[in-house]
Amino acid sequence: MLGRSRRLRHRPAPPLPSPPALPLCPSLPVAPAARCQFCACESLSPCSGLSSLAARQGYHQIWAFPFLPSGATATWPAASRSRSLAARSLPRSPARPGPNDAPLGEHDFRGQGVRAQRFRFSEEPGPGADGAVLEVHVPQVLHLQYGMYVWPCAVVLAQYLWFHRRSLPGKAILEIGAGVSLPGILAAKCGAQVILSDSSELPHCLEVCRQSCQMNNLPHLQVVGLTWGHVSWDLLALPPQDIILASDVFFEPEDFEDILATIYFLMHKNPKVQLWSTYQVRSADWSLEALLYKWDMKCVHIPLESFDADKEDIAESTLPGRHTVEMLVISFAKDSL
């Protein structure tokens, strides 16, 4: 059985068109209770819940957007071909500040309001525990690009890093699709050698990565533009990595193979590298399993309760809320985890 995860109460959604003719898992049936013949899993299990046809076509905001005021709605363009999590767009709507938000009017981002949100990771004192506390501040920008504020998956991935913080000092870590870079910033504060990246086609998102570094007194962190599926000088110049971080990048199915192609290239620089990734389950219509098999990779699901992430509030934040989030560790199939 896979690890227990946070399950979402489904809201009614608008009628959806039929799935594309060539789903990533070709044998995955439409019937929700059927079994996938490729990976022998139930179609509602986490391995077949990556990304969402519903999300691509638009659905009620209260399911996908905990950050917008009640009654607001958000939809995706039907034919989006963006190469980064940060490129997805939604209508402008007033941000709802949380209890840890602080106005940063002097740091307005190209005319957009910026707020700094605090995430406070802590450990209860006790046998074998030192009661450590770590704060991370990240910008929250009211902007059309999704990478400009924190999503539920980023908080869960940051909690996984916090739980394993004693193993991070000296590790070479790359965060892809970083946006506001909560996981990468936390890893850097725990002693890792971190590189932050987002699409080279989205200078706004690269700028918000740099702003996160400044907020946390980490001006030395390298920020590079990497576009999934593209071979660039910045990609070729990257040193071998020990860990690759990715929160909610498996969102648009047309991006899946580009992401894995980039990961595959990095794995050849260091075959022992692991991809630590979180994703939000939005649909049972898509599977990553066939592509992992194609790229000679394997996936292990990490139970949320094993790193204290099976709750609605993490790091004194209301995220991840009641969203269904899964934690994955992906590596070369020939190497043991």
Q: How many H/I helical runs? A: 8
The poorly predicted ranges are 1-11, 16-99, 101-107
Span from first to last CA?
A: 18 Å
Kindly provide the radius of gyration, computed on alpha-carbon positions and rounded to a whole number of angstroms: 19 Å
Molecular structure report:
The protein is 20% helix and 20% strand. It contains eight helices and twelve strands. It has a seven-stranded mixed β-sheet. Strands 1-2-3 form a three-stranded antiparallel β-sheet. Strands 10-11 form a two-stranded antiparallel sheet. Helix 3 runs parallel beside helix 4. 45% of the residues are buried. The N terminus is likely disordered.
Any descriptors?
single chain, 337 residues, alpha/beta, seven-stranded mixed beta sheet, three-stranded antiparallel beta sheet, 8 helices, 12 strands, disordered N terminus
